[in-house]
Amino acid sequence: MSTEKNTQEKVRLHIRNKNRERYDLEALKVAVPELADHITINKYDAESVDFANPVAVKLLNKALLNHYYGIKNWDFPAENLVPPIPGRADYLHYLADLLGQSNFGDLPEGDTIKVLDIGVGASCIYPIIGVTEYGWNFIGSDIDAQSIESSTNIINSNPSLEGKVECRLQEDPKAFFTGILSKDEKIDFSMCNPPFHSSTEEAQKVSHRKVKNLSGKKSAKVELNFAGISNELICEGGEAKFIHNMITESQDFAKNCFWFTTLVSKQSTLKGIYKSLNEMEVAQVKTIPIGTGNKSSRIIAWSFLSKEDQKEWRETRWRIAEENPESLVE
User: Fold this and answer.
1) SS3 of 109, please?
2) Residue 256, number of CB atoms within 10 A of its CB
3) What is the spatial distance between Cα 56 and Cα 74, in angstroms, rounded to a whole number?
4) Phi, psi of 246 (to 5 degrees)
5) d(CA 324, CA 330)
6) pLDDT tens digits, residue range 272-296?
């Protein structure tokens, strides 16, 4: 198993991220006028969004999608997770880099790339950004029928997404690829943002700390600032067991996917992940730091494909490397 690890955490968003700099609040208020009611003056005497308020966070992200990505219609039930757009975009940008590295520096874009988003949720956020930024096609899977319905409504409400994203209900809550991918179906990578809490109590404790940090006040009542229904945030065994199960099942789809990937929230989870990957005898593993400021995370990517398998994949699916022989420099 070829393993590449880099423990240096990123302190800035990806260079292609549209939100590397401070938010243009004036432009965002034009995009979504309701946002103006949730702008406050922070301790530095500057305008800021009230990040402790879930309604304000949702309006901010709605404005970001409208202003930077051209998504005019984005809504979903209030109880569902509100994804932070800049962080979600970073995951996709680093995966784009990973594809480019796998193709001798040429980034495969457009309809040649198909992505499986495991747990697409009600917001459809990864397909939205991936389609807008790179023109990729997506399969969005989820165990929750209402989330599938919500994401489908978002797709149907935005012409730029139609025909680019297909939502599929995962009827087995313990499966990741089985029941979603057919035997001969190929995807260029899978992605997932796992539920990272093992219990409601753990989620509440984290939420209390988050609200206190954001508002400077203690809160007796838990109100998640990014909302989120239980299966989006909580699973038995937390992210460690969730990712272990994903790795185990991925072996059955070894030839269906170039790169399997997942976000890993906790540093302490990594040791178990590397152990699971070693037991699966994967061909290659990469650890990609991701995050900003004091919030750090990482992407774990693994592939079962040999060098010959990867060469055939590039030539039959991407065709970029063979059309640009001068780029074949490692």
Assistant:
1) coil
2) 19
3) 15
4) -65, -45
5) 14
6) 999 999 999 899 999 999 986 567 8
At residue 98's C-alpha, the angle toward residues 94 and 102, to 5°, is 165
CA-CA-CA-CA torsion sign (61, 66, 71, 73): positive
Q: Where are the alpha helices (DSSP H) in 110-199?
A: 125-134, 145-157
Alpha carbon distances (Å) from 1 to 132, 301, 305 = 34, 13, 11
Helix axes 270-280, 238-250, angle to 10 degrees: 20
- Per-residue HEC secondary structure of 185-204 comes to CCEEEEEECCCCECCHHHHH
Q: Please state the φ and ψ torsions of residue 287, each to the nearest 5 degrees.
A: -115, 120
Which are the contacts of 145, defined by CB distance < 8 A and separation ≥ 6?
A: 169
% the chain with pLDDT above 90: 69
| Alpha helices per DSSP H over 158-267 | 200-215, 230-233, 238-250
Q: Which residue has the tokens 């992200």?
A: 61
**pLDDT value at residue 123:** 96
Tokens coding 229 = 């229904």
**3-class state of residue 75 by DSSP:** coil
Q: How confident is the model at residue 144 (pLDDT cuts 50, 70, 90)?
A: very high
- Cα 259 to its chain centre, rounded Å, is 14
How many residues are present in the chain? 330
Q: For residues 262 and 194, what is the distance between their CA atoms, to the nearest angstrom?
A: 7
Q: What is the dihedral of CA 64, 69, 73, 79, to 10 degrees?
A: -50
Torsions phi, psi for 306 (to 5 deg): -75, 175
> What pLDDT does 330 receive?
38
| CB burial of residue 149 (10 Å; 0-12, 13-18, 19+) | middle
Q: What is the pTM of this model?
A: 0.85
* Cα→Cα distances 193→33, 87, 109, 233, 299, Å: 30, 11, 22, 10, 10
Residues 41-64, mean pLDDT to the nearest whole number: 91
DSSP state of 165: E
